[in-house]
Amino acid sequence: MAVTASMVKELREMTGAGMMDCKKALAATDGDMDKAVEFLREKGLAAAAKKAGRIAAEGIVATNVSEDLKVASIVEVNSETDFVAKNETFRNFVAAVAAQAAKTKTEDIDTFLSEAWSLDSSKTVKEELASQVAVIGENMNIRRFKKVTTEAGFVQSYLHGEGRIGVLVEVETAVVNDAVKEAARNVAMQIAAIAPKYVTRAEVAEDYIAHEKEILKAQATNENPGKPENIIEKMIEGRLNKELKEVCLVDQTYVKDGDLTVQKYLDGVAKENNTTITIKSFVRFETGEGIEKKEENFAEEVAKQMGL
To answer: How many secondary structure helices (H) and strands (E) does the chain include?
Structure first.
């Protein structure tokens, strides 16, 4: 019996197995859908479907940087448990995903997942993910990625806590020596620790500032009834400046030297190396951020199993 695309699609939806695996299963069972499901289950390839409903909020962040430091990628791949996140097979897979992300031409996660897997072009990235789910035994998810390229400088990476947090920093400079690279790494560590939202104030949207001013004005007015308008305005500006110093990287207090801002630290390193150093952009991924983890209630689980 000829295997059609619609049959492959149906089996894939039933089992969650990869496209090529479904095609092989149908060919091996002469198009019998039930036998094809059994075939995949026996091979351990249908397990991904049942596991796909579980929440994957653990995992790791990985980076990949080219030898010339001009191209880099960062990815977050989630697993269900921290135990699997430390598994060598899982970490090797995540490293391969990061390497693929460094070569991709897309910025869209769905398009990325549909690309041919770099280590086996007969599979897509998504199909390789499903295979890894079957092998490792937990639901996994390639949640996000970012590729950074630069012409006038280099990209520095930093991983914290065995991949709990990952950072890429794009640095524009004419000098790329050990001292400048160390400065970039220190800035990456700052980003990991303090989590700024912007590089400079110029990146902050005007509507964000206007909105914050409204909130700060209401706060200042409520806390200081009867104060003159000009005094209130000065209070608003002071509080806004303090807030912007916290969210803008170059204005933050440098964590390794509280007497400096990040900008002053970079200016000092630049002067010592007869160059200029500008942070053009950064990416910070923290594993599981924004994912609502399922809270397990053991008593309820026992009651459910006992039919109570």
So the answer is: 13, 8
Measured from the Cβ of residue 260, the count of other Cβ atoms closer than 10 Å reads 15
The residue ranking higher by pLDDT, 2 or 262, is 262
Percent of the chain beyond pLDDT 90?
57
Contact 206, 244 (CB under 8 A): no
* C-beta separation of 153 from 172 below 8 A: yes
How does the average pLDDT of the chain come out, rounded? Answer: 88
Strand order in the sheet with 153-160: 153-160, 165-172, 278-286
Q: How far is CA 285 from the centre of its chain?
A: 4
What are the phi and psi torsion angles at 78 (to 5°)?
-100, 150
Break the chain into its structural domains and give their ranges: 5-51, 54-149
Q: Report the distance separating Cα 3 and Cα 32, nearest Å.
A: 10
The H-or-E segment that residue 297 falls in is none
- The DSSP code for 261 is B
Closest CA to 129 of 11, 13, 48: 48
Domain 54-149 superfamily per CATH: Elongation factor Ts, dimerisation domain (3.30.479.20)
Fold classified for 5-51: Helicase, Ruva Protein; domain 3 (1.10.8)
- How many Å is the maximal CA-CA distance in the chain? 86
Full-model pTM? 0.75
* pLDDT more than 70, % of the chain: 90
Confidence of residue 138 (pLDDT cuts 50, 70, 90): confident
Both tokens of residue 306? 């006992």
> For every residue of 216-238, which 3-state class applies, written as one string?
HHHHHHHHCCCCCHHHHHHHHHH
Burial of 221 (0-12, 13-18, 19+ CB in 10 A): middle
Query: Rounded to 10 degrees, what is the CA torsion of 214, 215, 221, 224?
Result: -140
